[in-house]
Amino acid sequence: MAKAMKCIHIIYFAAGLMLGCFSFGVSAQAQTQAQACNKTVYLTFDTGNMSVAEKVAEILRRQDIKATFFLANEKTFRGDYALDDAWKPFWQSLAKEGHHFGSHTYDHTYFVKDGPKGEVFEKPQFGPKAEMTILYNEAAICKEIRRVDQRFQELTNQSLQKIWRAPGGKTSPTLIRMGGMCGYQHIGWAPAGFLGDELNSDKYPNQALLEKASKAIQDGDITMAHLGIWSRKDPWAPAVLEQLIINLKQRGFCFGLLPKSSENQSK
Length: 267
Description:
Elements: H1 2-36, E1 39-41, E2 44-46, H2 53-63, E3 68-71, H3 88-96, E4 100-103, E5 109-114, E6 120-124, E7 134-136, H4 138-156, E8 163-164, H5 173-181, E9 185-186, H6 206-216, E10 225-226, H7 241-250, E11 253-256, E12 265-266
Parallel strand pairs: 1-11, 2-3, 2-10, 3-4, 8-9
Antiparallel strand pairs: 5-6, 6-7, 11-12
């Protein structure tokens, strides 16, 4: 009996020692990761034609990082639109995983030029007034931004972050002020953050885009790519995206969420 009790004590001691070593290993690993992560980059994706949307989501999931998505009701490779009910499971899944979302204007409405009396000329790419140049006042711009927020709530029961991005990045101080008056901060991207997924793949092959971004991105930069582009023959994702993330991690980057704040930073 005494021998059996001694064996049990030895087993408990060994188990405790192993657990302690495991806990120390996990703690040391977490500390090493925290020390290695000393810069922040913000990955963002505009809707585009959604042809690589699932691949992008899979890569972010596998790499355990978060990104910010700017949504417009753009026509997709399926022939439907990005904010149709058919895409509800996709947006719901991303929302549950903790990504952030902003407005890219409902009809993917491009800024053309400033107009009179603090108004702006805009050209929707989609919707009933597609390709028409129209004069927008503040209320009209606000409606165009907020329609995405309203639709996203219908799809996910979650609001957008109060951020937006003008299609093509085309803006003026007047347009940015109008969005701000509506309560939405405009988010552009850094020059090095232009990841080139909409460029001609013959002139700008994926390997060249990967090498450039891997070296050029700096602390605090916002990147921009799409969930699919009609014009590029050799898709940018997944060819570039996952290796770019790996390269940036090796350079000590964390991956933050927009709008920028200490709370929106992930490893």
